[in-house]
TrEMBL record:
The keyword RNA-binding does not apply. GO terms for molecular function: ATP binding; ATP hydrolysis activity. The lineage of its organism: Bacteria, Pseudomonadati, Pseudomonadota, Alphaproteobacteria, Acetobacterales. The keyword Nucleotide-binding applies. It comes from the Bacteria. Pfam families: ABC_tran. This is ABC transporter ATP-binding protein. Belongs to the ABC transporter superfamily. Ycf16 family.
């Protein structure tokens, strides 16, 4: 079986006051099709940077290493090409887009991806039927579709809106960058169920989180611990339990 995502020896830096600051220091990671993987690690270890590099944020400079996605060189693809190929990033802090209608934004994004995949675009009726079914499953009010993207949304509403986008776009690989941060128990469960509802042999996810509760909901196939810019250990649920009991001290020592 061909790996969906394969990261080998990935190094990346960002400009800091005119000097490159290395953040990723040799990340190795493989995600097979149909699996949900989680990354945990202390603040500043490079988790979000990894998600941004995979999504194609231009302020990050990849200095060495390789990333293949569905057999293609991901690093050679523009951000919009990555999205069309099936990569989706849910942000830790979703941006607000004043004046941009949520429903129009979502329909434009969905049809752009469908065109790129050679699929028929959704007309207004077909889109509304699909999006209303999705909002119902996420306990979202249809009124949110009439508002500007994320403007005036609570933290939980923003995260649900990200999961709504993911549900409608049907990505092959979803990267969730601490989508669970700032959520109460009910919102966390709804977000987790949104991810679980997409699980299939054609859907994989990379979930970046600090919280074992989300992992309890999702039941990831594998957990990876990142420290000092690289993945230092991979395993099962026992890793999350160890972190919950002991913190990251032993993992930081391992990465030193």
């Amino acid at each position: 079986m061909t790996d969906l995502l394969k990261i080998s020896g990935l190094h990346a830096s960002i400009d800091a006051d005119g000097k490159p600051k290395e953040i990723l220091r040799g990340v190795d990671l493989v995600i097979p099709p149909g699996e949900v993987h989680a990354i945990m690690g202390p603040n500043g270890c490079g988790k979000s940077t990894l998600s941004y590099v995979l999504a194609g944020r231009e302020e990050y400079d990849v200095t060495s290493g390789s990333v293949t996605f569905m057999g293609r060189d991901l690093l050679d693809m523009e951000p919009e090409e990555r999205a069309a190929a099936g990569l989706f990033l849910a942000f830790q802090s979703p941006v607000e887009l004043p004046g941009v209608n949520n429903a129009n934004f979502l329909r434009t994004a969905v049809n752009a991806v469908r065109r790129a995949r050679g699929e028929a675009e959704l007309d207004a009726v077909g889109f509304l039927k699909a999006v209303r079914a999705a909002t119902k499953n996420l306990s979202m009010s249809d009124d949110m579709l009439k508002r500007s993207v994320n403007v005036g949304f609570s933290g939980g509403e923003k995260k649900r809106n990200e999961v709504l986008q993911m549900t409608m776009l049907q990505p092959t690989l979803a990267i969730l960058d601490e989508t669970d941060s700032g959520l109460d128990v009910d919102a966390l469960r709804i977000v987790a169920e949104g991810v679980k509802n997409l699980r299939s042999p054609k859907f994989s996810a990379l979930v970046i989180t600090h919280h074992q509760r989300l992992l309890d909901y999702l039941g990831p196939d594998r957990i990876h611990v990142m420290a000092r810019g690289r993945i230092v250990r991979s395993g099962g649920p026992e890793l999350a339990k160890q972190i919950d009991a002991e913190g990251y001290a032993s993992f930081l020592a391992e990465a030193a």
